[in-house]
């Protein structure tokens, strides 16, 4: 596998007076070329020494930038082969939205493929009982699923459903239908949700299922769904690959008050 001879990098692309460390500037530079598709899947980057000469920085700086790209899941580094792009810019990306949340989740369930990894009925932890407003010691259905788009994994989901709600659908249906649809079938259609979004590093088990390196950045979304009676019917924690999922929101401002921002819903 030959290195990409068309890659054009020069020392003037790096600013030693900037606030960002040099390795971060190189990381950002290469990441932009990878995400844009300029550096395609399975392309081999120039060797560390060659990049050092191109950019006029130390080999240690280049090495750290490449290692950071590897941790983030953009490249694979292998002795005797070099640094190879593992990110496919041509692969589809899923976009979520705060606007019309339920419709968006339903649409995502239709447009993606689901793989059921685990489904068990067990005693819920105190924390899950609290979020689902169940007595401690209650039984819940624990569901672990993987979602794919275009054959590529993009989300790893752990869901808890109250036992009586889970009786409204079969385990076989979990392998083919969206949970929104199944909750509707069970007579507990979600109408509102409390949601928290944060960034986290991928744990080994999650990383293995998503096809990324441990420690890679993930978008973690925790959501508690309620039916029209206000009862919590689903507690879900979704881990999304940051290179395959985007979350969009539109903010509007009350111009009369000149200070209040809100999200459309």
Describe it for me?
This protein is α+β, with helices and mostly antiparallel strands. The chain folds into 2 domains: 11-85, Winged helix-like DNA-binding domain superfamily/Winged helix DNA-binding domain (Arc Repressor Mutant, subunit A, Orthogonal Bundle); 94-249, Chorismate lyase-like (Chorismate lyase, 3-Layer(aba) Sandwich). The protein has 9 helices and 12 strands. It has helices at 22-36, 48-55, 59-71, 101-111, 126-131, 163-166, 171-174, 179-185, 204-210, and strands at 75-78, 82-85, 94-97, 113-123, 139-149, 152-162, 192-201, 217-226, 232-241, 245-248, 251-253, 261-263. The protein has a 6-stranded antiparallel β-sheet with strand order 4-5-6-9-8-7. Strand 11 (251-253) and strand 12 (261-263) form a beta hairpin. Helix 1 packs across helix 3 and helix 2 packs across helix 3 (59-71). Mean pLDDT is 81; it is low at 94-108. This is GntR family transcriptional regulator. Residues 20-88 form the HTH gntR-type domain. It comes from Hyphomonas hirschiana VP5. GO terms for molecular function: DNA binding; DNA-binding transcription factor activity.
């Amino acid at each position: 596998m030959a290195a990409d001879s068309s890659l054009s990098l020069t020392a003037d692309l790096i600013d030693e007076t900037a606030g960002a460390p040099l390795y971060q500037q190189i990381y950002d530079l290469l990441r932009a070329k990878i995400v844009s598709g300029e550096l395609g899947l399975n392309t081999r980057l120039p060797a560390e020494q060659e990049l050092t000469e191109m950019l006029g920085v130390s080999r240690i700086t280049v090495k750290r930038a490449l290692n950071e790209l590897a941790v983030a899941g953009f490249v694979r580094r292998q002795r005797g082969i070099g640094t190879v792009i593992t990110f496919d810019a041509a692969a589809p990306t899923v976009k979520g939205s705060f606007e019309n949340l339920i419709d968006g989740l339903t649409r995502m369930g239709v447009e993606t493929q689901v793989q059921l990894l685990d489904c068990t009925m067990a005693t819920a932890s105190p924390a899950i009982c609290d979020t689902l407003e169940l007595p401690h010691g209650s039984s819940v259905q624990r569901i672990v699923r993987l979602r794919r788009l275009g054959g590529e994994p993009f989300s790893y989901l752990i869901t808890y459903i109250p036992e009586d709600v889970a009786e409204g659908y079969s385990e076989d249906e979990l392998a083919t239908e969206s949970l929104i649809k199944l909750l509707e079938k069970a007579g507990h259609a979600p109408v509102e949700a409390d949601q928290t979004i944060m960034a986290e590093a991928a744990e080994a088990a999650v990383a293995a299922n998503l096809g990324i390196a441990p420690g890679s950045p993930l978008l973690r979304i925790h959501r508690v769904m309620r039916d029209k009676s206000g009862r919590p019917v689903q507690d879900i924690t979704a881990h999304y690959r940051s290179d395959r999922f985007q979350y969009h929101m539109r903010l509007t401002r009350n111009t009369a008050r000149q200070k209040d921002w809100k999200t459309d819903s």
